[in-house]
């Protein structure tokens, strides 16, 4: 089977620092992959290199066997990549629905050429746009607050809205950076349910997360980074017992792990 996504020997250097050191991994369609490791391990940099926010120093990235290495974010988005950020970015003064509409408008812009030429296809795209805004609102379970302004909504709702915005470009592969950070246990459990729903909908997912309950309960496979290097890869059961992973990350409490990298 060909992989949906492959990263080959990705290296990213910042001045003297090697943030990613020859990291390779693949993703199969419909998988949920966990990307874990201590703070500073290179997880966010990995996301930035994949989506094209940063160019890798060397290495190659393929989506559906097409080379997307160094493609800028608007093109990788067009190819089917989307991400959510460590800190949620939503339009605070817009309603929940308007936030999702704005995100979907980005996708519809791609088809603007047809829109100008053919009124009928414009109309049909307008209809499909409305459908997908409702689909997304249902998927992130925020229909009941669709007309509320984002400003003032509970934190868990805002995180879900951040995911909804990423869904606006209709991604095949969704990268989520610490989606459960700051969530209470109930909200984390809701997040895990949402992630499974997205996967069942056909979206392949990569999650960077420190909450091991979320990671171990949700992921089919886990890749572990430490100081920019991949030190382990396998099922949650295998990763949990890996001596090197325990030594570098799992053995430490979250606070200790934070202090250790500082
Ligand atoms: N834009 C940047 N410029 C310089 N150094 C960076 C930049 N982004 C990240 N780094 C460094 O790269 C390393 C990996 O960072 P990051 O990918 O954010 O780690 P993680 O997400 O695993 O906590 C860290 O040492 C960080 O300080
Ligand atoms: Mg990070």
UniProtKB/TrEMBL annotation:
UniProt GO cellular component terms: plasma membrane
- Extract the Gene3D superfamilies matched here: P-loop containing nucleotide triphosphate hydrolases
Which GO MF term does the entry hold, naming one? ATP hydrolysis activity
User: The ABC transporter domain covers which part of the protein?
Assistant: 5-252
Would I find Cell wall biogenesis/degradation among this entry's keywords? no
Q: Which residues cross the membrane?
A: none
GO terms classed as biological process = D-alanine transmembrane transport; L-alanine transport; L-isoleucine import across plasma membrane; L-valine import across plasma membrane
Give the protein's recorded name.
ABC transporter ATP-binding protein
Organism the protein comes from: Oryzicola mucosus
Alphabetized, the UniProt keywords read: ATP-binding, Nucleotide-binding, Transport
InterPro entries, alphabetized: AAA+_ATPase, ABC_AA/LPS_Transport, ABC_transporter-like_ATP-bd, BCA_ABC_TP_C, P-loop_NTPase
Q: Which domain of life is it from?
A: Bacteria
Task: Report if keyword Metal-binding is assigned.
Answer: no
């Amino acid at each position: 089977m060909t992989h949906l996504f492959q990263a080959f020997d990705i290296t990213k250097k910042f001045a003297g620092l090697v943030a990613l050191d020859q990291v390779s991994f693949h993703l199969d369609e419909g998988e949920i992959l966990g990307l874990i490791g201590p703070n500073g391990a290179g997880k966010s940099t990995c996301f930035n290199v994949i989506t094209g926010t940063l160019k890798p120093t060397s290495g190659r990235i393929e989506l559906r066997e097409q080379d997307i290495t160094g493609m800028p974010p608007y093109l990788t988005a067009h190819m089917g990549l989307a991400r959510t950020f460590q800190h949620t970015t939503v339009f605070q003064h817009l309603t929940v629905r308007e936030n999702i509409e704005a995100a979907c408008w980005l996708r519809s812009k791609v088809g603007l050429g047809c829109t100008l030429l053919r009124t009928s296809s414009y109309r049909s795209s307008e209809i499909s746009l409305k459908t997908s805004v409702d689909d997304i609102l249902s998927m992130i379970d925020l229909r009941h607050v669709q007309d509320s302004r984002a400003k003032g909504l509970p934190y868990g709702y805002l995180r879900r809205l951040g995911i909804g915005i990423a869904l606006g470009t209709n991604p095949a592969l969704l990268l989520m950076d610490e989606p459960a950070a700051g969530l209470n246990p109930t909200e984390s459990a809701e997040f895990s349910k949402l992630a499974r729903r997205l996967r069942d909908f056909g979206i392949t997912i990569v999650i960077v997360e420190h909450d091991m309950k979320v990671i171990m309960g949700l992921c089919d496979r886990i890749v572990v980074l430490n100081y920019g290097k991949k030190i382990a890869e396998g099922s949650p059961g295998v990763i949990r017992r890996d001596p090197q992973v325990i030594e570098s990350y799992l053995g430490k409490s979250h606070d200790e792990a934070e202090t250790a990298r500082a």
